[in-house]
Amino acid sequence: MSEVVKRLRERRANVWEQAKALADRAADENRNFNGEEQSSWDTLNAELDALDKRIKAVIDGEQRAKETEEAFSRLEAKPDQRGGDQAADDESPEVAQVRAMLRGEAGAPRGIEVNPTGRTNFRTLSKLTAGAGANTVKTSFYDQLVQNMIETSAVLQAGVTILRTSSGETMQVPKTTSHSTAAIVAEAASIGVSDPSFGQASLGAFKYGVMVQLSRELVDDASVDLEGYLAMETGRALGNAFGAHLVTGTGTNQPRGILADTTLGVTTATGTSGVPTADNMLDLYYSVIAPYRNASSAAYLMKDTTVAALRKVKDTTGQYLWQPSLQAGAPDRFGSVPILTDPFMPATALNAKSVVFGDFSRYFVRLVGGIRFERSDEFAFSTDLITYRALLRGDGALMDTTGALKHIVGAAT
Q1: Residue 118 backbone phi and psi in degrees, to 5
Q2: Range 91-176+193-413: architecture per CATH
Q3: Domain coordinates of the chain in residue numbers?
Q4: What is the largest CA-CA distance in the chain?
Q5: Band of pLDDT at residue 252, cut at 50, 70 and 90
Q6: pLDDT at 1 (0 to 100)
Q7: pLDDT surpasses 60 at 118
Q8: Number of C-beta neighbours around residue 129 at 10 A
Q9: Nearest to 98 by CA among 382, 370, 369, 383
Q10: What angle do CA 222, 223, 227 make, to 5 degrees?
Q11: Model confidence at 201, in pLDDT bands (50, 70, 90)?
């Protein structure tokens, strides 16, 4: 972690301490915020959110600067600075193929299917610190595409189960709707049969696509990070479209999102506009049975504005349940549980499912093949623009509807 990031994180911790002091003072005097205090609280929370964005931007900028320096070192045939006199490795044939396709070099294909190499584990593709190993791993074009998809969809960060298939025919996957039960059996008595109940979930292959057009001059400019730009733009676009359906999809002509099949855990009290209390959050946690709530992929999922409301929440001993992360790449926590924020989760409101908690590995995401990436010089021939398109085929559904994932809903009135 650089000194700049350390200072920003220290500032973030300091701002949080100021916000806590403000809330504590009002709590000690058993009153709500006055107008000035509410304004200060809102300002401090806005600064926390701004610092989060700045920390991420600095980390991304430092990584881009490092990659640029490595690229210039290779162009100038300089020794690799990380390894003393050891020269930088030549780019792989796969990277060369992608670059040739993007620039339209002679003999290059017009389209490619970008796939991961080796066993795919999407949970490792979120932003990590350099100290955690990011400096030792080269980022491929595929990794950049998927990384930008994950940054826009918290569901893909949450440890969901990924099913990858080479073809797109409909898959019938059994899903658990109830578990077996046991009972005391008398000597020589018959043992009752209690079978688990199963339903079926169909996982199809909905196609998501995006097109990006760049001028010929921009593509021909060797100083432009064309791969990084296209990976960022198309990855975010696909992530926004697919990610929205992984949360709110109805299952009709689109994936079946998490909210379609989560189980009711807690209903907020009337008169709270659906904003959960500390008791609501604890009740939600314990409404999920131990095997699910203790799973490594257990987490809270909510919108950013819901996190802002929960920053005031305390336990019975007066300790804040929201815990800011002091480690780059690690999420904030509520109690001891990671908080993942997704822009597609509903805000707190009457009848709104504003918070989901449980074992996200019980949600299955199906991806067909790789991400198809194609180039056309003819589509916008009259304007001398080069058109790129990225296509993704996927689906999603919750495979355990017995309570692996539960939600908080705002009271109807």
Answers
A1: 80, -165
A2: Alpha-Beta Complex (3.90)
A3: 1-80, 91-176+193-413
A4: 87
A5: very high
A6: 59
A7: no
A8: 15
A9: 370
A10: 80
A11: confident
